[in-house]
Amino acid sequence: MPLSESLNLNSFQTKTPSDVAEACDIIRHSASTLDAIVPSGSGSKMHIGYSPSRNGVILCTKNLNKLVDYPARDMTVTVQAGILVKDLTEMLNKENQRLPIDDPYPGESSLGGLLATNTSGPRRFGWGTLRDYVIGISILNDEGRETKAGGRVVKNVAGYDFCKLHTGAFGTLGIISQVTLKVRPNPEASSMVLLSLNSANVESVLDRVHTTKTRPVAVELLNRNALQQPLFKNLDLSSDYCLFVGFEHGAEAVKWQTETLAPELSDVPGKIDIIHGPSDSAIWRNLGMFQSTRIPGSPLTFKANIPSSKVASWCALASDTLPGLSLQSHAGSGIVFGHLPGDVSRQMAFDAITLLLQKAVRYQGNLVIPYCLEDWKSDFPVWGQVRPDIKIMRKVKESLDPKAMFNPGRFVDHI
Amino acid sequence: MEKDPLALHVLPGEKGFGTNVDYETFMDCVHCGLCLGSCPTYVQTGDENDSPRGRIYLWRAVTDGRTELTPEVRKHMDLCLECMACETACPSGVKYGKIISSYKHDMTRVLPPAPTVNALQRWMLFNLTPYANRMRLALMPVRIMQKLGLMWLVRLAGKFLPKSLRLLNEIVPDMEPHYGELPEILPAKGVKRARVGLILGCAADAFLPQANLATARVLQENGCEVWIPRTQGCCAALHHHAGLDTEAKKFAAANCVAFADGLGDGPNKLDAIINNAGGCGPVLKEYGHLLHGTPFEKQGESFGSKVKDIHEFLVELGPITPTHEVPLKATYHDACGLSHAQKIRTPPRQLMGLVKGLELVPLLESEHCCGAAGSYNITQPEMSRALGERKAKNILATGARAIFTANIGCLLQVDRYLRENTPSVWVAHPMEVLWAAYSGQFSPRLKAAIKPYIKD
Amino acid sequence: MKRLLDSLKNIVGPDAMITAASELMVYECDGFTIEKNRPDVVVFPTTTEQVSRIVDACNYFKVPFLPRGAGTSLAGGCLPVGGGVVISLARMKKIFDVDYRNRCALIEAGVINLWLTNHLKPHGYHFAPDPSSQGACTIGGNVATNSGGPHTLKYGVTVNHVMGVEFVMPDGEIIHTGGPVEDNPGYDLTGVIVGSEGTFGVAVKSWVRITRNPDTYRTLLGVFNSVDDATNTISEIIGAGIVPAALEMLDQMILGALEDAFHFGFPLDAGAILIMEVDGLEAGIDTEAERITSIAVKNGAREVRKADTEAKRTLLWKARKQAFGAVGRLASSFCTQDGVVPRSKLPHILREIQKIGAKYDLKICNVFHAGDGNIHPILLFDERYPDQVKRVLEASGEILDECIRVGGSVTGEHGIGVEKIDFMAKLFSPDDIAMMIRLRNAFNPTNNCSPQKMLPTAGACIEASKAGRMAAM
Ligand SMILES: Cc1cc2nc3c(=O)[nH]c(=O)nc-3n(C[C@H](O)[C@H](O)[C@H](O)COP(=O)(O)OP(=O)(O)OC[C@H]3O[C@@H](n4cnc5c(N)ncnc54)[C@H](O)[C@@H]3O)c2cc1C
Ligand code: SF4
Ligand code: SF4
To answer: Which position among A2, B6, B108, B114 has the lowest Cβ density within 10 Å, counted as fewest Cβ atoms?
Structure first.
């Protein structure tokens, strides 16, 4: 996505250091001039959050993209954070390994960006999220020094776990310069079972999938509008909902699970399709990309996090509120993405989001807005409802970035 | 070290505290804390002073002179159930039993009996309980009243009884009629496979005679000739645990005499001396030690080596599968003396597994002490109640209609706390259900327990 | 102090505190016994509010405080360095709410790890982190030290299974981070609180992930003539892209002791054995077990046995988990280290350990979480000989230095505590440590909570002059 479509960064100059030392110089310089620093990798997620509260520079890490160490036999890899996820994937694939995290912007995301935004997709149900894979991290801090935490071994409890802190911090605590990841072997096989459902059955089927004898790694629920999007058009599905249950394991286990799940649910009215194919096949990729799709004219995309058991009822409420909504849920994990239709007014959208947010909060969850028209951000709850632990987050921010240099104002509660 | 005016001291010239245990026993404890979760008193209070590691640390500190024997230290040591769950849990093989017994023995040197036991309770405990006949006589009125359905009167009157008697009243289960006296020798059924002696125990025989009866019958059923010497007495466990060694030795010696005929190599030689109460077994097996240095040393050793727990014995012998079905969901509580002290956990389950229709469901914390622990329910009533209630709660959570456990103390304790909620659950010795399965004779309580399963 | 005691009594009541010197003694150390210090008082709160008020009182009277679970820390995490108040969570052991549908549970900090798993068992679930101390250690302690265990190779350590905490901050404020729902926006405070060894405050409740039990297991025992063959097998299994549920190595010396203790039937002439477990669905599991077997055989395994009954498997794991206890049979004293190396460096580090043992004339045996590269060399000695103690300390240091040199760490699961503070400066630069201090200051600016733990600050240096008998693994 071109930067112009994103945050209001018009007066920002982009600096693209070629190495860490140069990046540190830029930070030090900004520290002296009190300029803001907006970290960026490849720029694929520059629309997320509030526009920075101060002017300054965009620090682009795309040239900090070197492989540092890949001892494949240890199943760990150390790379600079600017590396494109695509390049990392390719490299790992040569050793028949992977980072089992879905990238909604294949080809575009940098690893650092994926990490800072803690992006995930369908596979999170079976394989977890990035926080489970980062075992070492280097950060360029507010003083322009490279500091590290964690290490290069898979088990390590020496010192505080900055890896977790920076994962999902949206670059507000420093620039991620280097990362060590745990990686996984490529699965031997994969398959996807598709169940067409009508609305009335969604809840009970989700409950049953929860207790299935099989062990899915992805449980995805898409509504009719979503199924009509180009990503899924060729599946030719037109039921109220479609449930995608994905398996990735050894060949025998995948075969058994595929053959077991369908009969388990055979009494559910609706058709069952099965898609075999490798785990990088189109269906997996498209399910991973839905969250980043722009439906033409859609002014807003939200992400709700709620208990898995509430997905069906919450989705029903959302569809009732905004009939044109396209919904995808990582139903096993309680994550729901929704793209608003192009024809909603600002007021309608605001009311709907307010209602859905309230409902999510009542379930101890939340709702954030990864994308919306820039001028809506002034009154929409971009980061959902602020929770009381914001106090501690502020203390952490003040302590690690006392001059508020990194992405000032962009993240939760304009932190 | 601050001086505590209430601390206990040894008399000048006497040996210091803790000198009666090999110091290496303390050293074996590496202070890892792995025993904590298995200790019922620690689990209840959360105070590490009430944990095995804590108690070892305390007693070692007293031994080392790092602290005095203060009332606080005593409180924690006295609260120990001596259930030996910690020995089971400890990977370093720490002999905790030696440590607690060192404390108990030192206490008898310097103290009058523990203050929580009043005179009447104490008299009952040490003068009545160990003598089966006295006990049976004492319980006679209760039994008659139960028979006449007048127990409610007693329970009502209980409110006005002195606390100690009330306690007795609470402990007493709904008793079945005593079988009277068994013949001294019961013949084996079928081919004779072994000749065994049977220990009846004291409290057990008075309170729950049906367990003894069942044990004897089951033995017969399995081809054993059973000898029940008339002159046998208490196993000595009660006194031994209280540190009253002189009395303990007397009881042990008396039993050696009672069974003397079967100990040697003579024609009446016993293959085993069978005991069915988990709490008695450990002491019976240790008669050799207990009588060490007395004229009965040799006989004690022979006696001890022959003692077998009933379950252990039957499994070794190869039990005959019973034929009658007992359709019952049941669970099993590991009596400490059986599971921790004698490490017998599988045999009872194996035997009950032979009973057709019996579904044995696991019991959470089955190897946690129920709080009976010998005289513990009298000396530490609060903790005992807490543990009893916890046990009852866990039993109820299984949904079982029967709970089996192989020790008189546990049977009484479990019965007492279950009775408060669910009197219909059958509390019994494993031998009782086994006998029912051999004979097809179902006692009224068993019938009541299986009722929900029988469709007509 | 008297006034502090009075206010504590007001908060928790007289039955929930310990003040007698003889009782406080029991709280002067944890599983790490080299250093000892008596606290001034131990309190046993039962509610979060009580914890908060206790913390307030401590701050008001400027007395340091520190949380304690079961005290099984092997790094002196519970050592009350400057005295003060020990806040024991041992009476907070309620399991509130197990939500099987959403796979999470809310539990109090004092719940014993294994109880949680036992509680979940009838429903086919468990709590994945399974430290060898799981029969005693508390969830709060697991959270504080980010505990691992044999099965964390496949399932991850504690932090991967904690979704949120109810936490009393060092200034007494009660906060909630995360919760039963994933992905709450904002910083992952839960993630940094886990593993902060009590220096960020007191974890009172946690929302934890519960994990479905695997349908089946295959537990294999690989018997090798040499340690080299075994370690090569480990790195080849990992390198082949197999993720076993657990992969544990035991060397000859420890085998002998274990056989004494458990009578498992271990081959006593083997140079090393590997416990290799795969789990999951019935479908395909034998193929996986066969792949592992053939890798083992290729690397010189003399035989690969199956623990084919549940009883055998249980006994095998019991033997493994209680291995250190058996070490007591080898020597009167021992000292265990907790280094980590990249898994491909296992053959190297074990050869180094052997060399170091020879150099210092010490017997060293090994039993460890091989799949993670987490080594636990156990150095045997007799504490009555000061010369041996000195050699043990030097050899330990050298082993850990070698772990650092090959890119590893000095602690995989036991934590820094007070024991390893000196190594922090070897692992991290002053800048790194400065950032950690800044992070701590965000939570704990006065450093009144668990002072002198984890981070090297002036005065925190422990004179490690005397290695006592120590438990581990
Ligand atoms: C034999 C043995 C085997 C072991 N095996 C393993 C193993 O396999 N893997 C492993 O990871 N560890 C292992 N350990 C170490 C130890 O058991 C773990 O670190 C365990 O998590 C500590 O739990 P605890 O409840 O005993 O905590 P404690 O020892 O009481 O405390 C540990 C630290 O956590 C802090 N703390 C405790 N509770 C809280 C709380 N509620 N809030 C904040 N801070 C708190 C304390 O201040 C202290 O710093 C082992 C220890 C022993 C003795
Ligand atoms: S008694 Fe055993 S388990 Fe308990 S602390 Fe000592 S060594 Fe550890
Ligand atoms: S004997 Fe029982 S009560 Fe006593 S310390 Fe051991 S486990 Fe605890």
So the answer is: A2
